[in-house]
């Protein structure tokens, strides 16, 4: 049932917006709004047959909205599923006598069952392609005298080559709700020498606290592999993993063991202890703190041959592109490396990042990474073996300039065109629905005329709130977008009809669902602009589609100079 609901087209009716109440509205608030709208739309108040028919339709819609929201069980179902949830046959899976909390729990159970069915239908492919580029000839060229002696020309182009490649791919095949098979493989080449391997893992979820995995592998460089991995939650704040393996080769059997203990130190901080025994034995401890705006890692490792200390920090900007800047420091027996970089979202499913690595004795490298859905493309570019300021400068500035140029000339125009296509498709698919909503809104405005006339007379008699003009839709205020056409509708009458005791209150919901309103620009950002008079003084306000609005307010007052 849940799957059917999500696959159906989403209904645009918002009962809360229709009644102009908060989603947390009490029964008294619902009843007051319902009575007000019933007085406006009651069919018996209209003698004209056409108006009477239109009033009857709107009255039934308001009655249905109140009927759903005033019943706790129906309201809980509507909050979770929407209007279609109340119309789906087979509601016996969730008994109507249950409490709203029980209905939500049942919904979550149905969600989990649907996810399990989806798992059985997908392979969850993941892949990585890495291409190593040697560009040291750009900065580490031989002296001209040596080139002349060896017969080389001093004016030739720098020699740039691909010196390594790595390709890996994995797929998951759910066998049952608790068993999964994972098939993975990789191919690597470096300076003309290469190899590959293939692995098969069988994972079983034994309980809510843990799972186990058996791994088999084979390759042309390391020989057959057999491994066993176990994960277990010890407490609600602590878990452990253990991985043991046996590598078979011409030199004999090489066993290995890795264990890790992790614990939640607080809400955002994890601590890890790891011990590894085998060909590269080591002990590692690390602390990872991840918050909404930052990510911090500190690690120390003692081992053979790698002993090091490492610290990294990442700052997350709270913008639409999910931009992150990062820096890290790592020092050990191998030398010292400092890295800094950034990454940003360039489309819905793509993230582009660049990192500059400066180290001794590694030199300077530029690493470019593109994540596209579950695929990763990695391009490490080695620029120089020395610490040259020119290499650091070009590695930092070059990618930034290139990205800004591509962003302005390619990515933004492409995303803008794609967005326009999606909006056009959305308009076409909802054209009939919008025409129906427009007809209902026009009918509602006709039915409001008599009530609005009385409200205006009452407000004028006490110098109260008079709505002079009100528009709803897309306004074009940016000079760079003057070529676009504003799409707005006049909602002066519907707003005046909502005035009560010289006050107008709109809740935090899309205003397209208010009586007398409809959506004039589907899929686009909308606003409400109101010009009103209170106590003989002009006021004006512009608010967003889902923003709450309360008038009159002193801050809306228009100065005499303007």
UniProtKB/TrEMBL annotation:
Belongs to the DNAJC11 family. Required for mitochondrial inner membrane organization. Seems to function through its association with the MICOS complex and the mitochondrial outer membrane sorting assembly machinery (SAM) complex. Gene3D superfamilies: DnaJ domain. It is found in: Mitochondrion outer membrane. Pfam families: DnaJ, DnaJ-like_C11_C, DNAJC11_beta-barrel. Residues 14-82 form the J domain. It comes from the Eukaryota. InterPro entries: DnaJ-like_C11_C, DnaJ_domain, DnaJ_domain_CS, DNAJC11-like_beta-barrel, J_dom_sf, Mito_inner_membrane_organizer. Keywords: Acetylation, Chaperone, Coiled coil, Membrane, Mitochondrion, Mitochondrion outer membrane, Phosphoprotein. It is a peripheral membrane protein. GO terms for biological process: cristae formation. The keyword Chaperone applies. This is DnaJ homolog subfamily C member 11. One of its GO terms (cellular component) is mitochondrial outer membrane.
